[in-house]
Amino acid sequence: MSTTLRSALPEAEEDEPRDLWIDESGSDRAFVLGSRAIAATVLAVTAGIGLFLAFSAVPTFGRYGFGFLTETQWQPEADVLGIGAVLVGTFTIAAVALLFAFPLSLLTALYIAEYAPARIKATLVSLVDLMAAVPSIIYGLWGFTLVQPHASRFALWLHQHLGFIPFFRVDADPNAAVWEQTRYTASAFIAGIAVAMMVIPMACAVMQQVFSQAPPGEREAAFALGATHWGVVRTVVLPFGKGGIIGGTMLGLGRALGETIAVVLIISPSFDLKVKPLEIGTNSISGLIAGRFGEATSLQLQALLTAGFVLFLITLGINTLAAMVVARSRSGQGADA
Amino acid sequence: MNTSVQSTRPRTRATLTALVALLSSALLITSARPAQAAYAQIEGSGSTWSQGIVAQWISDVDANGMQIAYNGAGSSQGRKDFASNVTDFGITEIPYQGKDEYGAVDTAGGREFAYMPIVAGGTAFTYQIKVGGKPVKDLRLSGDTIAKIFTNKITNWNDPAITKDNNGRKLPSLTIVPVVRSDGSGTTAQFTAWLDKQFPSIWQPYFGKSGLTSYYPKKSGSKTIGAAGSDQVMNTIASSSGNGTIGYVEYSYPVNKKYPVVKLLNKSGYFVEPTQYNVAVALTKAKINNDPASQQYLTSILDGVYTSTDPRAYPLSSYSYMLLPTGAKDQRMTTAKRQTLTDFMFYSLCQGQSKAGPYGYSPLPLNLVQAGFDQLKKLSVADPAVDFKDRDVTQCNNPTFVAGDLTKNKLAEIAPQPQACDKVGAGPCGTETGTAPTTTDEAKNPKSSGSSAQAAPASGADPAAGEAAPVDPDTGAAAPVAQAVAGEGSVAVPTELASGRPGDAKVFGALAVVELIVIILAPGVGAVYFRRRARRRLGAS
Amino acid sequence: MSIDLEENPTVATPRPVRTSVRAEPSSADSVPMHERRLLSRSTAEQRFELIGCWVAAVALAWLVCGRLMPWHGPLVFTVVTVVLGVVLLAVITAVDAGWPEVVDRIVTTVITLAAGLVGLALVSTVLFIFAKGYRPLMHLNTFVDDMSGVGPRDPLDRGGVAHAIVGSLIEVGIAILVAIPLGIGTAVYMTEVGGRFARVVRTVVEAMTALPSIVAGLFIYTTLIVGLGLPRSGLAAAMALGVMMLPIIARASDVVLRVVPGNLREASLALGASRWSTVWHIVLPTARPGLATAVILGVARGIGETSPVLLTSGAATFMVTNPTEGVMNSLPLFIFSTVRSGEPIYIERAYGAAAILLAIVLVLFVTARLLARPRKGSR
Fold first, then answer.
1. Could you give the CA distance from residue A70 to residue A270 in angstroms, rounded to a whole number?
2. Considering CB atoms only, which of C70, C315, C321 is closest to B71?
3. Which of C42, C77, C78, C125 to mutate to test the interface with A (most CBs of A within 10 A)?
4. Considering only CA atoms, which of C354, C353, C319, C336 is closest in space to residue C163?
5. What does the alpha-carbon distance between residue A86 and residue A283 come to, in Å, rounded to a whole number?
6. Hey, are the CB atoms on B30 and C166 less than 8 Å from each other?
């Protein structure tokens, strides 16, 4: 391994790469054609759905114009259809879900990646995956029966103490002699908690994966300089995992927007345009579809498909953005989030 | 699995074996069921108003091998599913509405069908009001008050109009939360039709136009909340957080849940409950379309029901209809399906009707049962292979029948008269509602009314109703007689204590908390401060 | 190969630096030996402080919630305890340590508590379902009977959810039969064949993973049931589930296949194997655990999904084994429809079904883990 040998080498070899795929056997050709056919089928199916949704949006926008996006009421009998209120409701539920899910998943991911004892780390990672596999209806039941009574009490507490902020306001008297509990149930707040349970594992898995890839050299350097554990996390792990944090959260947001059954179980459907998550009555696009598909005439069905298309576009946009953020970030090079 | 290499083959085989075992056991379970060649599985959807009794009928006929799936999704969906050939039958409270002025279509979409009345019942108003932790069970309201409650004109249970309906008994100050249906509903349609006909001056300004609607118009900013399906309305009202709610559902729902219903004022000045008797009495005034040639054959016009002057009549009584697919070339129907539907309905119209009363419905009168049979016959006309033998009215065991007289309704004749305490300006009776008395004796002398059913029963006779003893809250002495009457039953709120200044406790509590924490943390914080200062001095010197 | 040759000289250069580093430890040998401090363990004093702080926090919270402020309920109590505990801990730590250590301590506490909260939520979900649903599970008929002829008030020893279990298995089975070959086939095409068309397919498939499940259900409802007039059936539900699972499985398999080391492929090709036999004998077997995990997690997702089934299958109360015949039931749909009925016994049945569903998902999940175990890190 002396240096003299090496310096001589580059001039010696100057050959061209051989084309590896010159003669394809029959089975190879069949393989390529077959897999291409399968891929084409999948492309046709998936793209077909997208196109179908897009085309169903044409007559809806033709009939209701772009007011469809801003009209709050959904009154099939009066031929007034719009998704303004449900869009706001969808985002309110998702916002509440993120409000809970973002800090919890970030901290849980940090715990798993940094603080957990090494021997239970793998178990914890599986538990997070298990949490993602639990059916959404189970979380719906959990939120509906177990969480709702406590959450409505908490909502009252928030209203009593933070009622001066419009976000926490509920159209009821917080200090009434008989507590109007009905006003604090079946709200976006409670639906958001249930949805948060589905967002946490998605976001947490991505974040944890990214945190565990933090460059050991930099970590050790920070430790060697006398940093505390938190100092290392703050100066090395978090900046490194920024892309994963944002990307994971956005992936979770995509899930939160599309969640149906837990939301339907919990909310009391209404078409009010309001941002009062603690108050009863809200709706989401998926809740609207689940509630109204059966009685819809073909025109209304197209309107529902359009609503679904809008939801799909929003989710798609968020997912794409998330993928871009993850891929661009320093940590995202190897991560397939 | 086919990607597995040699080493994993045993595992694959084990998985396969397990799968085969699972599937074969599943098959075993199904093949254990006796095969019924004559019947085929049918499915329907629609009204939740009549779902209670239909579900019972379905589980009754299951023993005969009839498999029927019913999905209570609201009348609007029932009509829509039927029109788009998704179901074999539909159940709805209102007929197809045709084309409305906006062009929204509500028709059967070319599918041949016939309306067949299946059951009668009363749309009841059920509520949850708690006074001192005990539920009020004997609320009485006039139609006018109901209309104002559901149009957000009356918003508190201590409203004078409600006090007046209850003959001076005042309810506590509690916000009224009307619960309405959020989906397309026949119950809503019936309720709004009644509002539109009886209280147009209240309903039409609220709705913005005249007529009925299947979608209750909910005004934003009001306390009204929506729930999908009668069961969800009932669940919302019955939930632990449902204090102050009132909603409209078929009588069977509160009966089932043991929840009270509003006694509704009728035209002759009595407050009545929608028992099978009162519904049957009221429906004798329904105008039935008796023209077999009409598309609307057998559908009813209920104006007479709303204004019936019989003291027993419950104004919000109505029928529920089945949409029968009568077309000979109906794309979904087969001989076996028609046979199933025929036998199912034969059971429902005859024996099934005897279950209506206990379940909170009212049996159909004979003329409608007979007309229903004529409609049912159309299935065997459409397909001669359907066996319609031995299926006629004479075989029936229906509690409404008067032998030899088709037009009479036995139930309406034996229906008990309302008690005197149910009259306007009298009472209230203090008896529980929502119990669906099944015999006339029970209805005459409700079991919970104790020794007597007079205008003013002895106080304390009805502990179940959560009665408050007529004791003056201030002095502790027995209250005067006039107040005792007002304090009867469960609704007894003689005084309302002002809760002082609610802010006080909170402010002083918060101060105390702050003080406590300061006291506890002060030594620690002080220690830190002094040590830091000492260290700084050291560093400086 | 060529990379090796170029890198070697750069490796050779830092040698003098390394020797200088090594010189230091040797000089440290002369330093008197200290007892080695364990970095990961806390000292007895720290542990005492921790326990003391939390005991104090609980006591204080009781005083605040129970005596001073009108705050009732375990939730508020817990929140107050946590806030007080963190504050106390901060002060105690500040007494004998500097600011960075205080922050470190607080952050460690908060992170541990948050992870504990998430764990608690998960555990409470599982326990809650089994606690509420264990009574129906005590009866054998829950597993072998259907609900035909069972009224709302019939006791738990009559009727069961066998029809829903069988319905779920059939629907998911058909969905898998459609989704797995198509999904994995597409993934193989995207990774092994490649090309511009593969990029288009990948883009579209990735986009369609964003399709909310209810929209997949609505699509099938509109096209098959309303459009073509097919009856609501297990097949329609299976199609909806398949449409929903297809992009998920395709994408997950794509990710798994992409991490199969390229040198394995190259080695196989260099030995003269055809592309087809390389894929069949090398790539797929290597990725087997990952693929199995992807598929099983897809199945777990599909079996628990309610919204597509809600729109497409209808709900039968009796056993239906023919997916084309007519309405069918499935576990999530059964849970959804019975838990809303308001009938206490029905609700209990719903929780029983939920427990069964959860158990199925747990079994699937554990199976996925066991299959994935041979190759740690390939997940």
1. 16
2. C315
3. C125
4. C319
5. 5
6. yes
The answer to whether B223 faces chain A, any CB pair under 8 Å, is: yes
- SS3 of chain B: helix, strand, coil, percent, to 5: 40, 15, 45
Chain A partners (3+ C-beta pairs within 8 A): B, C
A267 interaction partners in chain B (CB closer than 8 Å): none
With helix as H, strand as E and coil as C, how does A90-129 read? HHHHHHHHHHHHHHHHHHHHHHHHHHCCHHHHHHHHHHHH
Identify the residue whose tokens are 């249906």: B181
Long-range contact set of residues B35-38: C-beta below 8 Å, sequence gap at least 24:
B36/B65, B36/B66, B37/B336, B38/B65, B38/B336, B38/B339
What sign has the CA pseudo-torsion B505, B507, B508, B513? positive
Measured distance CA(B446)–CA(B441) in Å, rounded: 8
Please report how many Cα atoms fall inside a 13 Å half-sphere around the Cα of residue B310, on the Cβ side.
22
Residue B405 pLDDT > 70 = no
Q: Is the pLDDT of residue A228 over 80?
A: yes
- Give the residue with greater pLDDT, B332 vs B9: B332
Q: Which two tokens stand for residue A319?
A: 């997912």
Which two structure tokens, joined as six digits, stand for C78? 């817990």
d(CA C148, CA B421): 45
Residues in C closer than 8 angstroms to B535, CB to CB, are none
pLDDT tens digit sequence for C166-198: 999 999 999 999 999 999 999 999 988 888 888
* Residue from B105, B80, B151 nearest A79 by CA: B105
Q: Can you give the pLDDT at residue C41?
A: 57
Rounded CA separation B241/C289 (Å): 49
Q: How close is the nearest chain B Cα to the Cα of C357, in Å?
A: 16
| Cα–Cα distance for residue pair C235/A317, rounded to 1 Å | 32
CB proximity under 8 Å: B 4-43 to A: none
The ipTM, to two decimals, is: 0.85
Mean pLDDT over C315-342 rounds to 84
CA distance C297 to C226: 31
Q: Is the pLDDT of residue B442 over 70?
A: no
- Give the integer Cα–Cα distance in Å for C379 and C372: 7
| Contacts with A8 (C-beta within 8 Å, 6 or more apart), sequence order | none
d(CA B284, CA B313): 9
Tens of pLDDT along C21-71? 444 444 445 555 666 655 555 678 878 888 988 899 999 888 888 777 777
Q: Which position has the token pair 């992409």?
A: C258
Going by C-beta distance under 8 Å and a sequence separation of 6 or more, which residues neighbour residue C319?
B29, B30, B33, C146, C148, C162, C163, C166
Could you tell me the two tokens for A286? 């998926």
Q: Which residues of A touch B505 (CB under 8 A)?
A: none
In three-state secondary structure terms, A171 is coil
Residues from chain A contacting residue B45 (CB–CB below 8 Å): 294
C363 to chain A, any CB pair closer than 8 A? The answer is no
How does DSSP classify residue A235?
I
Query: Over 90: is that where the pLDDT of A196 sits?
Result: yes
Dihedral angle sign, alpha carbons of residues C362, C364, C369, C374: positive
What are B70-88's pLDDT values in tens digits? Answer: 888 888 888 888 888 888 9
pLDDT, residue A20, reads 56
The answer to whether residues C304 and A136 touch, using CB atoms and an 8 Å cutoff, is yes
Instruction: Over range A154-166, report the average pLDDT.
Output: 84
Distance from the Cα of A182 to chain B's closest Cα (Å) equals 5
Do B61 and B216 meet the contact criterion of CB atoms below 8 Å apart?
no
- C-alpha A177/C-alpha B173 separation (Å) is 9
- pLDDT at residue B35 tops 60: no
Q: How far is CA A181 from CA A153, A170, B497, B526, in A?
A: 8, 11, 21, 45
